[in-house]
Amino acid sequence: MITVRRSSERHYARREHRQLWSSFHAPRAGDSFALGFGVLECFDEYRLDAKASLLVSPPLGFDVVSYVLTGVVASQHTSRQTAILRAGDFQRASGGTAGGLRQSNPSFSHETHLLQLWLRHGTSHSARPPEQRRFSVAERRGALCLVAAGGAREAALRLQEDVLIYSSVLNPGQHLVHELGARRSAWLHVVHGEITCDDAVLQTGDAASFALERAVSLTACAPSEVLIVDLAHLASAAPI
Questions:
Q1: What contacts 193, CB < 8 A, 6 or more positions away?
Q2: Least confident range of 118-122, 146-150, 226-230
């Protein structure tokens, strides 16, 4: 079962010099994705004005994956740990840290654009130090590049849950197929561009869930970038 989630269906908010688009938003009555998709409980897109910041406080039992699309992010995980993330950088941070996770745009003149995913692993393990990796466009061009995964896999960020996150940058006409294992589901997000998936055309900000499907298959209609979150399926073919 493939369910399309249009960009216009996301919750939008603007406050304090930042904009937010949330793919999952609990207060929306009748929304199949109000509580997320399996262990993927947040998929948020932020635009931060110059010198703006945001503070997120995921509880213990969550991993937070951030991906900087444009600009620079100063990511402060504790009062003594600050990392600088630039376009193309991915970071994994743990929830449950005193003070939360503050992400700031240090620029005086340029906007910052980033994505943030919350993944629930449900364990009571203490928070781990954050880690970050850069994945070049060349690594992701025309292929599925594994950027985060449960356990130690290749150069991917280490997650505490059974999740695989892939990133791909596509030229027009390029085709990708990602096979799904038994009882696996997937969330496909179009970072930018336009793709065809099954009989649907997905554009910037659109997404689709795949439940009890054999594979995620897509073709780029324009220069595009996508993220695929592969995770354990929960129950039925209905959105989870």
A1: 170, 203, 204, 220, 221, 222, 223, 224, 225, 226
A2: 118-122
Both structure tokens of 239? 């959105």
Q: List alpha helices for the chain, DSSP H.
A: 137-140
Question: 40-48 and 89-94: which strand pairing?
Answer: unpaired
- CB burial class (10 A; 0-12, 13-18, 19+) of residue 181? exposed
pLDDT band with cut points at 50, 70 and 90 for residue 236: very low
pLDDT band at 71; cut points 50, 70, 90 = very high
How far apart are the C-alpha atoms of 46 and 20, rounded to whole Å? 5
Domain boundaries, the chain: 2-232
CATH level 2 (architecture), domain 2-232: Sandwich (2.60)
225 contacts 192 by C-beta, under 8 angstroms: yes
Place of tokens 């003594």: 80
